[in-house]
Structure formats: structure tokens, C-alpha cells
UniProtKB/TrEMBL annotation:
Protein role: May play a role in preadipocyte differentiation and adipogenesis.
Entry's Gene Ontology cellular component terms: cytoplasm
Subcellular location: Cytoplasm
Gene (name only): AAMDC
Single GO biological process annotation from the record: positive regulation of fat cell differentiation
UniProt organism field: Orycteropus afer afer
Protein name as catalogued: Mth938 domain-containing protein
One Pfam entry name: DUF498
Lineage of origin: Eukaryota, Metazoa, Chordata, Craniata, Vertebrata
Main subcellular location: cytoplasm
Domain of life: Eukaryota
Keywords in alphabetical order: Cytoplasm
Length: 122
């Protein structure tokens, strides 16, 4: 099962291949996607993405995880989250969201088991 491509991205809106929903923030993995609701884990721009935010995608068996920090990179990604992913044997890439989507889609095209968490505003 392959990861769905991010079909489009603009400020506050992301569309994922195979889904009719328009996401503000989303999580994607091989075979699926869903809205990323920060309230589930109490996420805020700072301290940012926590291991609990990425755990669901990790459990889908991804080799690489791409994190989109927002259009202006306002969303932080602490070293503890990167270390958590590395300890799981996952290659992690933390980028501005437009760059993150390009990187994610390139990995999808290469057939990599890739997942992502993306913030589409600030």
C-alpha cells in the first residue's frame, strides 16, 4: 500500500489524493490520511510537535516521516521529537510546509513508505 500524494497546498488548505476532505493540518501515511487536530495532544506552536503527535503515523510502519512546520515555520519541532523518531529507526525530515510537501511527494513517487504531519498556515 502506497502513501497518498498531497494533491494541492495553499494557505490553510491541503488536499490529499483519495480524500474528498480539505484539511487545514493533516497526517498522512501509507493507505490513508486524516485531519491533524492539535487539541488531541495539546499541541501549540511552541514547544511544537510532540512524540504523541507523530505516534499514530509511526505505528503505520513508515520508513520516513516528513514534518511540515507551516508556511512561515512558526511550528517548532523539539529535538526530543526528532530523537524519538530516530530511536524508532525512522528517517525524519523537518521542513517549511511547501518544501515538506515537495519532499513528501518525491518520496511517494520513489515508492518509499513515507508518512507526514503538515501544518498549512503560519
Amino acid at each position: 500500500m502506497s502513501s497518498p500524494e498531497i494533491a494541492s497546498l495553499s494557505w490553510g488548505q491541503m488536499k490529499v489524493q483519495g480524500s474528498t476532505k480539505i484539511y487545514k493540518d493533516c497526517k498522512v501515511w501509507p493507505g490513508g490520511s486524516r485531519a491533524w487536530d492539535w487539541r488531541e495532544t495539546g499541541t501549540e506552536h511552541s514547544p511544537g510537535v510532540q512524540p504523541s503527535d507523530v505516534e499514530e503515523v509511526v505505528k503505520k510502519g513508515v520508513q520516513t516521516l516528513v514534518i511540515g512546520r507551516g508556511m512561515s515555520e512558526a511550528l517548532k519541532v523539539p529535538a526530543s521529537t526528532v530523537e524519538y523518531l530516530k530511536k524508532q529507526g525512522i528517517d525524519v525530515r523537518v521542513l517549511q510546509t511547501e518544501q515538506a510537501v515537495k519532499e513528501y511527494n518525491a518520496l511517494v513517487a520513489q515508492g518509499v513508505r513515507v508518512g507526514g504531519v503538515f501544518h498549512s498556515t503560519c
